[in-house]
Design brief:
The structure holds 3 protein chains of 3 kinds.
Chain A: E1 11-20, E2 23-33, E3 38-42, H1 49-57, E4 64-69, E5 72-73, H2 79-84, E6 87-90, H3 102-106, E7 113-114, E8 121-122, H4 124-137, H5 154-167, E9 172-176, H6 184-199, E10 203-208, H7 211-217, E11 220-225, E12 228-234, H8 240-247, H9 251-266
Parallel strand pairs in A: 3-10, 3-11, 6-9, 9-10
Antiparallel strand pairs in A: 1-2, 1-4, 4-5, 7-8, 11-12
Helix pairs in contact in A: 4-5, 5-6
Chain B: H1 19-24, H2 29-45, H3 52-77, H4 85-101, H5 107-132, H6 136-159, E1 163-165, H7 173-180, E2 183-184, E3 190-191, H8 193-210, H9 212-222, H10 224-229, H11 234-260, E4 262-264, H12 271-281, H13 293-313, H14 320-343
Antiparallel strand pairs in B: 1-4, 2-3
Helix pairs in contact in B: 2-13, 2-14, 3-8, 3-9, 3-11, 3-12, 3-13, 4-5, 4-6, 4-11, 5-6, 5-11, 7-11, 8-9, 12-13, 12-14, 13-14
Chain C: H1 2-28, H2 31-36, E1 54-59, H3 65-81, E2 84-89, H4 94-106, E3 111-115, H5 119-131, E4 136-139, H6 146-149, E5 154-156, H7 159-172, E6 177-182, H8 188-201, E7 204-209, H9 216-229, E8 235-238, H10 241-254, E9 259-263, H11 267-274, E10 280-283, H12 286-303, E11 313-314, E12 318-320, H13 325-333
Parallel strand pairs in C: 1-2, 1-3, 3-4, 4-5, 5-11, 6-7, 6-8, 8-9, 9-10
Antiparallel strand pairs in C: 10-12
Chain lengths: ~270, ~350, ~325
């Protein structure tokens, strides 16, 4: 795995804040995402992770600070704009339509066409073959072209979304809690996809509240807590246990454990 | 740079799907079987059902129903309802009638204006649903009441009676009838509305299965958030669907008005549920995202065949609705049953 | 597997039901009578003379108590004449009525009886019947148009004249303001009755549009509210027996002293006349409107008779008042008046 020092980050936020009325959702967040790196954004519920994603993916605008794509300051007006700039977001609800077939989902919004004018129609053959090929690269053989996405397992559905993002030229892949709804084995499979995406040169932002999933694949780890950046470590600078401790309230939990232990000793 | 090469894992749970199973999984299965059963039943038990004239009779009934069922099916696949679809056929017919008999337009300009008006109402329906974020069931129910009132009130105020008549004397009537309400192949007299119906069903099927907007319709009905996230213009698609429904209602209103040379103020009221039923029998889910225009056509065909078949049988007409209800229920059950079996294990 | 078995069971049930319904429907069509050729007394001649005659009757009826009596008349006529009757009603939908007439023509029936509240709508279909050599008679509505449509005669009551009669009777009773209750949005004939009533009444007449026979409770509320909000109304004219009963309750509920009259009879209406709750009923004797066309058409087929001489055959207005109510009451309970 080569480091990509000296290259400008694919996506960067500098001092970004977001307010909803008088609620501070995010305060002074700075983070840079480079190609070929997995950045894990950890935090418990309510830490501000979803606000963060929404700003990166173009759903919301930021109130303070700067958002940069490949060194250029931008302000996204819609998720479509973000997508066009190469920022693909795979949301928790997977952004796939369960009743539609895999290939229709894969090409939704960017369907390949042949013909002109009123005779313009979808190139079904190309779409089906391309989908099968891309899914094969993720390790899944989709044999039935019209199989509805809803019949795939949770991990496989993640694969569809990721494969789609990669195929359509995403430079940055933001994964919102991809393993939260999955079992152990499926989570392992998804983590493999995350690594694959990194191998193909994307910058990956992996958002999760589960440090055990983040630790094996991350190159950088940042922790959000109540809208603020609690810490920022490179791989090797922090152990898994320390990561867990930092995440779950750190010092407060230490004190509570200490109190409980002394109570037990006293009885 | 080493890549973590991942071998494709053949999913042992995914047995090879045969062509037969894939066909059975299609949404049209139930309605096709239902239509076949009824057709054979009446063909065998009556003298007239299988004659060319008889076929002309039941395709006649099915055609205007079918045009609307296809439009309503498209809208339902897109995740919305239009309860004003039935009364719209009356409003548009009445408008065309009043434009010609009261305000002196000749037939063709009146027809064009009627279509424009219908597109406008459809647009309004769509905009209201989008902006208010209320269920379309509620919004179009309001439209239904408004139109029902306007139909009666305006007709009575202007003509003093409850219908607009005298369309036969309007210049342009003959040429317009030729296009919208003439019959073909005497003496069997197939109605030209059947051709309109087939054309619209074919167009709808092509759009749904082979074009980009068709893909968007499924997505918008199946999961509008997911669709929006990948850049599908959800609002535009829904508004277009509402407009399609209203424009088809105008077509039906014009067809009926020209056929009968008159329009009654109460026309179309109550039909909106028949359209929805035909669409559901044809495989459309009430929750959206799934369905078929061909299926809805078969659903309309079932209603048409039952209607005329019962006339030919001379049955006590009190049983008419019982029979229709049972057949429709069966068609929906068969749909579900066959689809479940064909899809196999689902998570 | 079990699901498939249930599905097959369901299909068998439906086919069984259909067969059952066909059997029931068959009885009503007088199949027994024609197959046995059963006359009612030994003096009667078997009029069909061994021919298998089918008469189709296509009305705009709605299945309510009024049309049930007309249907009974037609069924009785078919039974007595030994012919098959195919009765269908369109529930006020002119397109459906045209389509049912087309079906009757395809069916090559021997005679066709239709009601024509909207003659323009069914003109083409009736013409096809006439061109196919099927004799046509109109009933109940369409008195002005029957000759134009190619029908042999019209059996019914002319609405305007009946309305005038009703209006005149209210005038006789000394009423000053009449409320005319219209229950069918698109029925021209009903509007003609109210117009006729206005002519015959001479005083102030107001029309009230109500929900109709599908929703009697709403209709009742609508009439009652009207009476409560306007107590100068001293006469109410209903145009249907079910509506009349609702109006009777509405008058009571509003505490109004308005006199009530109606068009057409039912058992309840006759009882109400006997009890003095309804002044009179204008009876168009719809039993005859069902019965006579079947007889006329059969005779036309078997004996080449034509009835009417180009004029309508009038079945009303007849007035049912306290004087003759008791006689009529029994008949109304049997469903023939």
């Amino acid at each position: 795995m080569t480091a990509t020092d000296g290259q400008s980050p694919l996506l960067e936020v500098r001092g970004v804040s977001k307010y909803f009325g008088n609620v501070i959702a995010l305060k002074d967040i700075s983070l840079a995402v480079k190609a070929g790196e997995v950045t894990c954004v950890l935090g418990d519920n309510g830490a501000g992770k979803s606000s963060f994603i929404k700003i990166l993916s173009g759903v919301h605008g930021h109130d303070e600070g700067e958002l940069l794509v490949e060194g250029e300051t931008v302000r996204f007006k819609s998720p479509r704009e973000a997508r066009e700039r190469g920022i693909a977001t795979v949301f928790q609800d997977l952004a796939t339509v369960p009743l539609m077939s895999v290939w229709r989902n894969f090409f939704l919004g960017s369907e390949p066409t042949v013909g002109k004018g009123p005779l313009r129609r979808i190139d079904v053959k190309f779409a089906q073959e391309t989908m099968r090929e891309e899914m094969r690269k993720m390790g899944i053989d989709v044999r039935d072209p019209d199989q509805p996405v809803g019949t795939l397992s949770g991990g496989e559905r993640q694969a569809v979304s990721i494969a789609r993002a990669v195929y359509f030229g995403a430079k940055v892949l933001i994964l919102d809690e991809p393993t939260s709804a999955l079992g152990v084995k499926q989570s392992g499979v998804v983590l493999r996809y995350v690594v694959q995406a990194r191998e193909r040169g994307l910058g990956v932002i992996f958002i999760t509240h589960n440090p055990h999933h983040a630790y094996p694949v991350g190159d950088r780890f940042v922790i959000l807590n109540r809208g603020r950046l609690l810490g920022d470590w490179r791989r090797g600078e922090i152990t898994r246990d320390h990561l867990v401790t930092q995440m779950s309230g750190g010092a407060e939990l230490d004190q509570l454990t200490h109190e409980l232990e002394s109570q037990l000793e006293a009885t | 740079m080493s890549t973590t090469a991942v071998q494709p894992v053949a999913d042992e749970r995914l047995a090879n799907i045969g062509l037969g199973a894939r066909l059975l999984r299609r949404p049209e299965v139930g309605s096709l079987l239902g239509a076949l059963v009824i057709c054979v039943f009446f063909w065998v038990t009556t003298d007239s059902f299988g004659t060319l004239s008889g076929i002309a009779n039941w395709t006649d009934v099915a055609s205007t129903l079918g045009i609307m069922s296809v439009a309503v099916a498209l809208l339902m696949i897109g995740g919305e309802f239009d309860l004003s679809a039935g009364v719209m056929t009356g409003t548009t017919g009445l408008l065309m009638g009043l434009l010609t008999t009261e305000w002196g337009l000749s037939m063709w300009p009146a027809i064009v204006l009627t279509f424009v008006f219908a597109a406008g109402i459809g647009f309004l329906n769509g905009i209201m649903v989008i902006k208010t974020k209320l269920p379309s069931f509620i919004v179009t129910l309001a439209t239904f009441f408004v139109l029902q009132g306007i139909n009666l009130g305006v007709t009575k105020a202007i003509t003093g009676t409850v219908r607009v008549a005298g369309l036969g004397d309007v210049p342009g009537y003959d040429s317009a009838s030729k296009l919208f309400s003439s019959t073909l192949w005497a003496p069997h007299n197939f109605r030209i509305s059947v051709i309109w119906w087939i054309a619209i069903a074919a167009l709808a099927t092509w759009v749904l299965s082979r074009t980009r907007p068709g893909n968007w319709i499924f997505a918008v009905g199946g999961d509008p958030n997911a669709a929006r996230n990948v850049g599908v213009p959800v609002a535009r698609v829904k508004i277009a669907l509402f407009m399609t429904t209203s424009i088809c209602a105008a077509l039906v209103g014009i067809i009926v008005a020209l056929r009968l040379s008159s329009v009654q103020a109460g026309q179309g009221v109550g039909e909106e549920f028949t359209y929805i039923i035909a669409a559901v029998v044809g495989g459309c889910l009430l929750t959206g995202g799934y369905g078929s225009a061909i299926g809805a056509s078969f659903g309309a065909l079932i209603v048409g065949m039952a209607f005329i078949g019962i006339s030919f049988s001379g049955w006590n007409t009190d049983w008419r609705f019982l029979f229709l209800g049972v057949i429709l229920l069966l068609a929906v059950l068969v749909n579900n049953l066959v689809r479940h079996r064909a899809e196999g294990a689902r998570r | 597997m079990r699901q498939l078995r249930y599905a097959l069971l369901a299909v068998l049930m439906v086919l069984g039901l259909a067969a059952f319904a066909a059997a029931c429907g068959g009885d009503d069509d007088g199949d027994d009578a024609s197959s046995e050729g059963a006359p009612t007394t030994k003096d009667d001649v078997d009029l069909t003379q061994g021919q298998d005659v089918t008469i189709a009757m296509v009305t705009h009826g709605d299945g309510g108590s009024f049309w049930a009596v007309a249907k009974k008349g037609a069924e009785d006529g078919a039974k007595q004449m030994g012919v098959t009757l195919k009765y269908s009603e369109s529930n006020n939908d002119p397109q459906k009525q045209a389509q049912m007439i087309d079906a009757a023509v395809t069916d090559k029936v021997d005679g066709l009886a239709v009601s024509a509240p909207n003659p323009d709508a069914i003109r083409d279909s009736v013409k096809k019947a006439v061109d196919a050599g099927i004799p046509v008679i109109t009933l109940n509505s369409g008195a002005e148009d029957f000759a134009d449509m190619g029908a042999m005669t019209h059996v019914g009551q002319t609405e305007t004249i009946a309305g005038e009669g009703a209006g005149a009777k209210f005038k006789e009773a000394g009423a000053k303001k009449l409320l005319c209750v219209i229950h069918e949005q698109s029925n021209i004939g009903l509007n003609q009755r109210c117009d006729g009533a206005k002519t015959g009444f001479g005083g102030e007449v107001e029309n009230l549009q109500v929900k109709g026979t599908d929703d009697i409770s709403t209709t009742l509320t609508e009439i009652q509210s009207k009476l409560q909000s306007d107590n100068s109304i001293d006469a109410v004219l209903a145009l249907n027996p079910d509506i009349a009963v609702a109006a009777r309750d509405a008058v009571k509920g509003a505490g109004s002293s308005a006199k009530l009259a109606t068009f057409d009879l039912s058992g309840d209406v006759v009882q109400a006349i006997q009890d003095g709750e309804i002044e009179f009923a204008v009876d168009q004797q719809q039993y005859l409107q069902g019965y006579l066309p079947v007889v006329f058409l059969t005779l036309n087929k078997t004996n080449a008779n034509t009835v009417g001489g180009g004029q309508p055959v009038l079945t009303g207005p007849g007035f049912v008042t306290k004087d003759n109510a008791e006689t009529v009451a029994q008949l109304a309970k049997d469903g023939t008046r």
